[in-house]
Amino acid sequence: MQLGSIYVLTPIGDPAAQQYNIPVYNNRLSSTDSPETTAFIRECLQECVDQHSCEQPLIPGKNSRQSGYPARLIHITEKEKLGNPDHVALRLVDVEMSCPQYATLSHCWGTTITDEHKTMVGNLADRKKSITWSKLPPNSRDGIEIACRLGISFIWIDALCIIQDSDEDWASESVKMGYIYENSYLTIAAGLGADSFSGCYNKQSSIHIDYSSSYGGRNGDRLIEITSRLGGSAGEQSTISFLCELNRTNPTPLLLSPLARRGWVFQERVLSPRTVHFTPQQVIWECREKYRMEDLTPHPPPGLDGRTLAALVRPGDNPHRENLYEHWYRKIAAIHYGGRQFTKPGDRLIAIAGVARVFQHHFTLNDGYLAGLWETELAIGLGWVCSDNEHEEFPDRAAKTKVPSLPSWTWCCHDGRLNWWSLYEPDRDFAFIQSSLQFIGGGSDQFGLVNGGYIQVRGRLIDLVVPDMSDHPENERSKLRVNALLDLQHPAWVLLDCHHFRDYKDHKLVNFKALVLGYNNENHWNTYFLVIESFGADNSAYVRRGFGAIKVEKWDMERESVRMEMLQNGELGEVETISLF
Prior knowledge:
The chain is of the alpha+beta class.
């Protein structure tokens, strides 16, 4: 990170604020359950409603409100008696043709939530009559109370508004999840803890710069205070503070929040017009235009069009088209999303569907969406690798778990961090032909719940041969130098997705081939390929097993030039049409 900004501030109430017009920060915070916090939220909300355009549809001209209404909301009545649980009236209501203004709750479920805290087929009728306040977990109770304090009479909470043991209801509502948050008036983010019983409120707030060393030593914010007496006859004591803050896309308390690692939260934050974050340190306001800290300390422009996380998928100074897919794969998928945690790894694809839908409209000119990849530049999209390198926002999240219901070629089928090694020029013979994806419920929405299927591509296949693995060390990882590929003296590197090469020693990899994807000769002579394995009686059916690269250094180019030129000119291998499952 590089130094971003240095601010001169003084504590609220300090005489220097009035005498020298120095901006203040609030060092008199109490609890996020306080009237002062509620007043701060109301002020931010009113400013946004009056001065910003955050409620404008993310896809202009599309009636996302009607198509994305939630099936149910929680109706809150008798708000003035909310502090007395015996007089709280809550019930589920069906949303008909028009949808009232509502809030949404963003939170971590955790592992201790039970069926009693969810809406199930068996209790749906009862919940439409009444929801018992005392049986709600703290996250839900606090979210409802915050909505009431802000004058919002309806709230959407996933555990209560989706029938959790109905596959049909889940398929219908999960596809609309992005719309549900986009159409929300306000999202309440319960970032205090990692489960449903942590609640929203802290006991004592603090200014976020007190936590300069909490984020693994990587925060870097520093506060230097100088206390002296002001000039003039009064000679009042005053404190001047110098805040050195690093540029980052999120205020520090958001990075520290348990919600920062939750998979579904990325979409909820990006698509919501406004979010109020209840963190362990303080409340943070985030809308599509700006952040505001409860302690009043400034947050520098995050570097994404000068706006908040929503700028990732909003129009503005769009990147050049050749960088669009780097923007999606490297910035969105790898940096912001790939390392996030899911209770159900199979949710990884559907939990980014709403973001993909908006990204498609603004950035890819309605390019075809293929379960996390795009038809255009598909050769680049297929070039993901499971990452073993620590990422500063998501440590210890290497991709290891395979989701069996998703095709092997999508990065969403792995639970954990991933990366794209390089952008490259697609091979001259590589082409996308068609897709045949299966969707739960039999629908055809390209952003729906995928349950298998394949893509058909044309490309050059080359035999992939590796040394005998019988004597290979048991602790060897899945990265291996493949010396026999293309008869090159320079080795190829192969990184398998889930398995180790030793797992295949019994059948000697006879069914493995390399599907050439593309080249990047800017600094080295690089060739990239997909490792695929055939299966079944059909020799044209394959599954992805990994990704590989041949990297020839400049000093080796002359020695390897003949074979590499043959490879990159399409003279090696056989061009075939295959189906990737």
